[in-house]
DNA sequence: CGTAGGTTTGACTGATCTCAAGTTTGGTGG
DNA sequence: CCACCAAACTTGAGATCAGTCAAACCTACG
């Protein structure tokens, strides 16, 4: 039973620490960062493509995604984000957003002014390394998504997306890998897998009839992880979670 | 008329300098890096998924790509690389390769020992920033590829791949944007766009009949850039080339 | 309750794949 | 310089996975 959220950067620091173990001075510097928190409903834009963000946003509670839109208005989600994720490290270095960041569920966001964060990174080599590793891991995840969307059949794409979501979520200590509630709609899943919502619905049913998972509304229970992993062609190495 | 290649890190340094302007001491530090050069034929593996690279390879001459392979043996190329590109910055921080790096044409490669490169990066903040920016730009390109493969129709995917290749190549001063020779086979293009070689062939013909380019074997001439750009839905902002 | 957003189903369509057979090309050795 | 060969490219016909369209059904929430 987690208590009502405290609005500190605690999860973000824990998440960086998981990526690269921080020292006490690193942690202290991060904890001293000034920030403001805001709350937003689902489907709210936190960053818009083409704008120049001036603060660095971090996800404290709820779920979000990054996406891009074609000139014909088709949306492609390129990553999902969970509490503790830094949502725009890249804008420390690249001043124009090349994609959108949008909420999936209602969220609590921490906004840290860019100069303050930059200073902590510059002054703390370990933090710097953690942030760099985090950016490199993001890139690895994007590569896996290119593969997923480019070369896997529909069932596998959906299964893979589910496996990744669960793996990241439980690695962050945010819930069981066997039983969880999906925060995203089937349309979100469609936009993440390069499919249509109708087909995603059918593929979710297929995963049911193949006996690897059961579903009650958005509550999913994986009943055969090995089967799931096989259908998804899921190998978590690309998440670089493990002991280094 | 370029003279026979000199085997220095010159192109790599120029490429970093384009990403983030270097000072003379940065340049001197990079020029002092020890390295060995090797030559390899087309289709040669420079890095294999799952291995732990001990040197950082850079492309001096020729073309290469990164790719991943599904359990059923389908290849998905996730990026192409041109002379001057650092091919595995990520292995400075992540020790296991999560993808393959393979040559497209015969290449000349410079291998820099990881510790030496790490030291130059640690000692030169500007170099560090340039490398970080380079990694962030790579990530941006991966995101665009997810969109390309996930949400664009076949002609657009092929056109987009061509636009990106030309834009990056001419930004690096490696040739004209209007007229160039493709280093990759139609099978490579297929693996980059998530299509089959047969369909890539048809889409290249379509781009011809739509009057945006002409083709003689692998020599391509773009005759209508605006039309090409429109079919490709190409907006180079994601390459972060421009004046910052 | 009413309503909007989300999910499910069915029937039909079509973009892309598959398979299979040619044709062209560029490199190599005689 | 030419003949040969493997790799790359091209073409056609038929199959299929996923998309489209449209309607109905939930269900959470005001």
List keywords for this structure.
homodimer, 244 residues, alpha+beta, 4-stranded antiparallel β-sheet, 3-stranded antiparallel β-sheet, 10 strands, DNA-binding
**Percent in helix of chain A:** 40-55%
Strand order, biggest sheet of chain A?
A: 2-6-4-5
SSE sequence of chain A, one letter per element: HHEEEEEEEHHHEHHEEH
Proportion of residues in β-strands of chain A: 15-25%
The oligomeric state is: homodimer
Shape field of chain A: globular
Biggest β-sheet of chain A, characterized? 4 strands, antiparallel
Structural classification of chain A: alpha+beta
Radius of gyration from the alpha-carbon trace of chain A, in angstroms: 18 Å
The overall pLDDT average of chain A reads 94
Largest interface between protein chains, with number of residues from each side: A-B, 46 and 46 residues
Structure write-up:
- Two copies of one chain form a homodimer.
- With 244 residues, chain A is α+β, with helices and mostly antiparallel strands.
- Helices cover 42% and strands 20% of the residues of chain A.
- In chain A, β9 (213-216) and β10 (219-222) form a beta hairpin.
- In chain A, α3 (114-123) crosses α4 and α5 crosses α7 (197-209).
- The first copy, chain A, is globular, with a radius of gyration of 18 Å.
- The structure holds a DNA duplex (30 and 30 nucleotides).
In short:
Two copies of one chain form a homodimer. The first copy, chain A, has eight helices and ten strands. The first copy, chain A, has 244 residues and is of the alpha+beta class.
List the topology elements:
Two copies of one chain form a homodimer.
Chain A lengths: L9 H10 L4 H8 L4 E5 L4 E3 L7 E7 L2 E6 L5 E7 L18 E4 L3 E7 H10 L1 H27 L2 H18 L7 E3 L4 H8 L3 H13 L3 E4 L2 E4 L2 H8 L12
The structure holds a DNA duplex (30 and 30 nucleotides).
């Amino acid at each position: 039973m987690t208590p009502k959220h405290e609005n500190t950067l605690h999860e973000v620091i824990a998440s960086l620490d998981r990526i690269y173990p921080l020292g006490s001075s690193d942690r202290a510097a991060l904890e001293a960062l000034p920030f403001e928190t805001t709350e937003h409903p689902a489907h709210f834009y936190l960053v818009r493509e083409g704008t120049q963000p001036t603060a660095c946003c971090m996800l404290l509670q709820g779920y979000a995604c990054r996406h891009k839109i074609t000139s014909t208005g088709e949306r492609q989600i390129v990553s999902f984000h969970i509490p503790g994720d830094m949502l725009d490290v890249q804008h420390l270095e690249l001043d124009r957003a090349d994609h959108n960041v949008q909420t999936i569920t209602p969220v609590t966001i921490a906004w840290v002014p860019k100069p303050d964060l930059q200073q902590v990174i510059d002054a703390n080599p370990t933090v710097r390394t953690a942030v760099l590793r985090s950016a490199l891991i993001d890139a690895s995840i994007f590569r896996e998504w290119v593969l997923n969307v480019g070369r896997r059949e529909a069932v596998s794409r959906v299964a893979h997306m589910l496996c990744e979501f669960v793996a990241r979520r439980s690695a962050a200590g945010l819930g069981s890998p066997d039983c969880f509630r999906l925060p995203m709609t089937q349309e979100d899943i469609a936009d993440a897998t390069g499919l249509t919502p109708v087909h995603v619905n059918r593929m979710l049913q297929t995963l049911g009839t193949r006996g690897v998972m059961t579903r009650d509304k958005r509550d999913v229970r994986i009943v055969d992880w090995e089967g799931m992993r096989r259908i998804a062609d899921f190998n978590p190495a690309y998440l670089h979670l493990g002991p280094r």
